[in-house]
């Protein structure tokens, strides 16, 4: 799993491009590698999947279907505040 690369960093951010299933998979892999125990492990979501309930609830929107907006979306994610997620 390429997430092993993040074991070398104290602080990192991951952008998941997909839906609820993709987010769940990445979170499970983060748990398996104990990356969530590091100083700062942050996850953002670019809602591209068919099920984007998590993205909607967290205020990221239901879908991203306009790729011309990608630079603005990335800037917004860079400035976003963090929220704890208990799953």
UniProtKB/TrEMBL annotation:
Q: Which Pfam families match?
A: DAGK_cat (PF00781)
UniProt entry tagged with the keyword Nucleus: no
Q: Which Gene3D superfamilies match?
A: Probable inorganic polyphosphate/atp-NAD kinase, domain 1 (3.40.50.10330)
Q: Which domain of life is it from?
A: Eukaryota
Segments forming domain DAGKc: 1-87
SMART domains given for it?
A: DAGKc
- Please name the SUPFAM superfamilies in this protein's record: NAD kinase/diacylglycerol kinase-like
Instruction: Provide any one GO MF term from the record.
Output: ATP-dependent diacylglycerol kinase activity
Q: Name one GO cellular component term.
A: plasma membrane
Keyword tags? Kinase, Transferase
Q: Which InterPro entries does the record match to this protein?
A: ATP-NAD_kinase_N, DGK, Diacylglycerol_kinase_cat_dom, NAD/diacylglycerol_kinase_sf
* GO biological process assignments: signal transduction
User: Could you tell me what this protein is called?
Assistant: DGKH kinase
Which species is this UniProt entry from?
Regulus satrapa (Golden-crowned kinglet)
Q: What is the lineage of its organism?
A: Eukaryota, Metazoa, Chordata, Craniata, Vertebrata
């Amino acid at each position: 799993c390429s997430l092993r690369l993040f074991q070398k960093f104290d602080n990192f951010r991951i952008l998941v491009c997909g839906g609820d299933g993709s987010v769940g998979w990445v979170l499970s892999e983060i748990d398996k590698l104990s990356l969530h125990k590091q100083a700062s492990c942050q996850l953002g979501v670019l809602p591209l999947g068919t099920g984007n309930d998590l993205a909607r609830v967290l205020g990221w929107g239901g879908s991203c279907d306009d790729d011309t907006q990608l630079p603005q979306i990335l800037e917004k994610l860079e400035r976003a505040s963090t929220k704890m997620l208990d799953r």
